[in-house]
Amino acid sequence: MLKSLILVLFTIIQILFAFFGLYYFFMSIYGLLEKINKPQYKSYFPVKKFAIFIPAHNEEEVIGSIVENLNHLNYPKEYYDVFVVADNCTDNTRNKAYEKGANVLVRKDTEKRGKGHALKWGFNEVIFKDNVDYDAIVVFDADNLVSKNFLKEMNNKLCQGYKVLQGYIDSKNPEDSWITASYSIAFWAANRLFQCSRWHLGLSCEIGGTGFCVDINTLKEVGWEATCLVEDLEFTMNLVLNGIKVGWVHEAVVYDEKPITLAQSWNQRRRWMQGFADVNSRYFIKLFKKGLIEKNAALLDCAIYTLQPYVILLGGLMIWIPLLNVYLFDSGMFILTISVFPGFFKAYGIIQFFLIPVSLFLDGKLSYKLFFYYPAYLLYCITWIPIAIEGIIMMKDKEWNHTTHTRTLSIHELE
Question: Can you list the positions of beta strands (E) in 140-229?
Answer without folding.
Answer: 145-146, 164-171, 212-215
